[in-house]
Amino acid sequence: VSKRNQLKKIAVLGAGSWGGTIAEHLAQQGHNVTVWHRNEEELKQMSEKRTHPFLDDLQFSHSIRFVESMNDLKQPELVVLGIPSHGVRDVMNSLPNLLQDSVYVNLAKGIENDSLKRMSEIVMECGGIDGKNVVTLSGPSHAEEVAKGLPTTLVAGSSDPEIASMVQQVFSSNTLRIYINSDIIGVELGGSVKNVIALAAGVCDGIGFGDNTKAALITRGIVEITRLGISIGGKAETFAGLSGIGDLIATCLSRHSRNRYVGEQIGRGRSLEEILDEMTMVAEGVKTSSSVKVLSEKKSVEMPICDAVYESLYEGLDPKEAVNRLMTREL
């Protein structure tokens, strides 16, 4: 099928670094893109100067419309959610009714704190959206690199093969390749929990440990993610793929990763409050860490690395002591 027949009307909600990058990527594929963004000052900059507040490499095409009100979104065929995970419920609750029949493509990675729900579950619950119309796009994809057009792969997690394939066609280009996976539970869980492991990887950088430590952390980390994922209905093989080990590798090794950065600062002995106060962007793993703690206890899944991260963030455990405990756990 030619690309021409598949041009879509797309609304992107939230133009942070990833939402903004995806909006421009879709506009370059010829789609009709409208962007809604909550912060008015940032919206104004994007609309008038066509530049992005956080990403120097991102310049917006003139075809993109920026709107202040969600009521100005004219019946899009696709709605892309580019907001942080803790904002998804709010945004879904305030959507106008005209967005009921759209297909939702979620980019947020996280598990909601109180409900322990994945993002697609919140979209279905709050928007009254049919499950087959919700797709989560996840994988090793730092916005900074996608904005530069560096080759990147993602996974479209969806229970409906036809809708997954439509999303695959809409988003794919010569720099962005989309794979399909019917296990949306595994895709979402991998993308969320890897941020907690990335915090641990950062702690190791901050303390000054080496490649051996990080390789162990990534490998034992994916074991924890897989255990938890299987316990809630995900498939083991998903975690060996791009949205599992792939995303984990990128986030643990990258200088772009906000989660790794937060961990690094903690490893250097700074307090969480102090670090978060000076950051403009969201490190999802900080909130996800407490969800993972509750979920793993509920499912009786052993997750020593994630537990150590939780205690280092919230219970004042010294990061070096946390590592010592991991190394000297009962053999």
UniProtKB/TrEMBL annotation:
Keywords for the protein's UniProt record, in alphabetical order: NAD, Oxidoreductase
SUPFAM superfamilies for this protein: 6-phosphogluconate dehydrogenase C-terminal domain-like, NAD(P)-binding Rossmann-fold domains
Domain Glycerol-3-phosphate dehydrogenase NAD-dependent N-terminal: start-end pairs: 9-163
GO cellular component terms attached to this protein's record: cytosol
Swiss-Prot/TrEMBL GO biological process terms: carbohydrate metabolic process; glycerol-3-phosphate catabolic process
Annotated ranges, domain Glycerol-3-phosphate dehydrogenase NAD-dependent C-terminal: 183-324
Single Gene Ontology MF annotation: glycerol-3-phosphate dehydrogenase [NAD(P)+] activity
InterPro entries: 6-PGluconate_DH-like_C_sf, 6PGD_dom2, G3P_DH_NAD-dep, G3P_DH_NAD-dep_C, G3P_DH_NAD-dep_N, NAD(P)-bd_dom_sf
Family (UniProt): Belongs to the NAD-dependent glycerol-3-phosphate dehydrogenase family.
Protein name per the record: Glycerol-3-phosphate dehydrogenase NAD-dependent N-terminal domain-containing protein
